[in-house]
């Protein structure tokens, strides 16, 4: 496995296409995996949040997000193949899911945001299978169980979780075994970005 390690966090050293290939394999083989994007800000958080750090170390895929990771790699004599960030990946991921018939579920952001994003996606990816969407403000009300049940019932294969770092990573880690979609990915502020 081709990796780069920075501040004890191990990244997949891959191109964007290879990253999409990992996701494709995950879906095709129904392999339950956790897929995260890590930027320098996330690395900072690992110093003060041991639980988050441990979760990153147990992730199946950690993609290097942003030039800061590239610079850090160079400084430690390592060469990253590519910057694999969620914003760049998203349209490619949607295209791949559309083409291969993988259904996507969008979980996170404030009420209305995921809905707006989905309506944009329906125009841009007319045959994309959208399993469902839901805002990310439910944990406090103890609704996690019903949310997981709802996601599972849709048969979604790719679940994007946008609660911000490190809340989303902790939620994914704690619920990974009960979530049916093979691919579960933390995407931070992506829904706000895409719908805005
Ligand atoms: N969010 C959420 N539930 C929460 C807290 C935050 O869905 O309980 C959402 C928030 O609305 C925003 C995203 O999580 O869409 C966090 O965005 P941010 O840009 O802060 O992400 P990061 O920089 O951590 O990747």
UniProtKB/TrEMBL annotation:
Superkingdom in the source lineage: Bacteria
Keywords in alphabetical order: Glycosyltransferase, Transferase
TM annotation in the entry: none
GO molecular function, one term: N-acetylglucosaminyldiphosphoundecaprenol N-acetyl-beta-D-mannosaminyltransferase activity
Name of protein: N-acetylmannosaminyltransferase
Organism: Sedimentisphaera cyanobacteriorum
Encoding gene (name): tagA
Full-sequence portion shown in this chain: 159 to 354 of 406
């Amino acid at each position: 496995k081709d990796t780069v390690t920075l501040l004890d966090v191990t990244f997949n050293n891959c191109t964007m296409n290879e990253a999409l290939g990992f996701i494709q394999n995950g879906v095709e083989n129904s392999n339950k995996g956790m897929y995260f994007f890590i930027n320098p800000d996330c690395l900072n958080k690992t110093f003060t949040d041991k639980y988050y750090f441990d979760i990153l170390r147990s992730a199946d895929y950690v993609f290097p997000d942003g030039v800061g990771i590239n610079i850090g790699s160079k400084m430690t004599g390592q060469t990253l193949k590519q910057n694999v960030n969620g914003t760049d990946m998203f349209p490619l991921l949607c295209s791949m899911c559309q083409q291969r018939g993988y259904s996507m579920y969008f979980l996170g952001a404030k009420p209305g945001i995921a809905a707006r994003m989905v309506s944009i996606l329906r125009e841009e990816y007319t045959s994309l299978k959208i399993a469902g969407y839901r805002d990310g403000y439910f944990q406090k009300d103890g609704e996690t169980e019903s949310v997981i049940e709802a996601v599972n019932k849709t048969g979604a294969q790719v679940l994007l979780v946008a609660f911000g770092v490190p809340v989303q990573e902790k939620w994914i880690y704690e619920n990974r075994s009960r979530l049916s979609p093979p691919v579960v990915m933390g995407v931070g502020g992506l829904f706000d970005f895409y719908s805005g």
